[in-house]
Amino acid sequence: MSAKRESIAARRRMLIGEIARQRQSLGQEVASWAAPLAVVDQGLNVLRYVKRHPIMATVAVSLLLKLRRGGRTTTWLSRGLIAWRLIDRFNGLGRGDGGRAAHRRGDEAKEPGLLRQQPVA
What we know:
- The protein is mostly helical and 121 residues long.
- It is built from four helices and no strands.
């Protein structure tokens, strides 16, 4: 082998060793973040569930308030249901349908507050 090739091979071995040390160091640093990221992931899953099931979230919050303050369950459940309906209705006001289109239409309902433009005949 020529001197140039030996130099390149030696440098390659040195770089491979350095890469192995960096991988090990990075693995240790990432491992320390595993538990906090798992908690964040669980929190995001809860938020996704609440977004998909708003009535369930309203009922759960109402029940928690009832247990905490000790009032009538039916009062809090009815207030929660009324609040959810109002929020749902206000979200659809920009469409001019009082919020009812979200349950009938598909993609158009994903743009709250925007009026759908009708083609000019």
